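Records of this kind hold a single protein each, on a pair of labelled lines. With that in mind, the following record should read easily:
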Amino acid sequence: MPLSPRVPDLAALDLLLSVIELGSLGRAAKAHGISQPSASSRIRYLEQLVGVPVLERTTLGSRPTVAGALIAEWARDVVDAAARLDVGIDTLRTQRDSRLRVAASQTVAEYLFPKWVMGLRARMPDTSIALESGNSAEVAKAVLEGRAGIGFVEGPQLPNGLESHEVGRDRLLVVVAASHPWARRAQVDAAELARTPLIYRESGSGTRNSFERAMRADMPGWEPNVALELSSTTAIKTAVAEGLAPAVLSSLAVATELAEGMLVSPTVTGGPDLERRLRAIWPTGQQPTGPARDLYAIARRPI
């Protein structure tokens, strides 16, 4: 039920109580961190609303009128209730900020999230952080079902009900074992790549979805030739290094292996753009708050 327009706001009522307690408009203004003219204006506003004077100004200070004393008596419960409400809201915020549940696709979880967590811990050392790792489809489901306050994915498509914002980019690379024939070539033609059996992540993986979407956009009708399907990037890298077949993986995931010579990445020519966007996701219309908001801000920093 809407309040009557005659009901003063809390700030005016709180100031009236302070004037009565301290005996002076000037002392009350100082206690509230406002100027005396602002305090006078607030009391005048209160008097206009209620329609009667609430203070008498004397040479010794200010004291309540009979009506002012009554209003102050009624207002005390209102102000006390507002103070309890403030404490309750602060408690809710503390509880919210004490724990953060995050869902992230495997590439993000393994190669970016640890750095982000260090930044968040520096800001919010008392926050407990729980990470649920899975493919992009599983991350989207976790956010939609409320199991995670924020998610991070690599896949190009999301189900309805989610809002996404870019936090960075990476590139998909073709990787082969050092003993593979492609390791001795600087370039591999996209048409040859399209015909070659590859090792893939499972369906729903952001890496796989991004690669397949890019290939189909460049080569309508193309279908993947699956040599082996594995559910972890680490397993794929091991299989590639053993010479089983090439694979297409995130540049973030293979940086160490490429630097150490365990894997080799020939350039793909004449094919699709394999750069992809890494995105934060949350339910549509629900902006991240508390530690989720801070984690999102940290994630947006350059990789």
User: Anything to note?
Assistant: The mean pLDDT is 88.
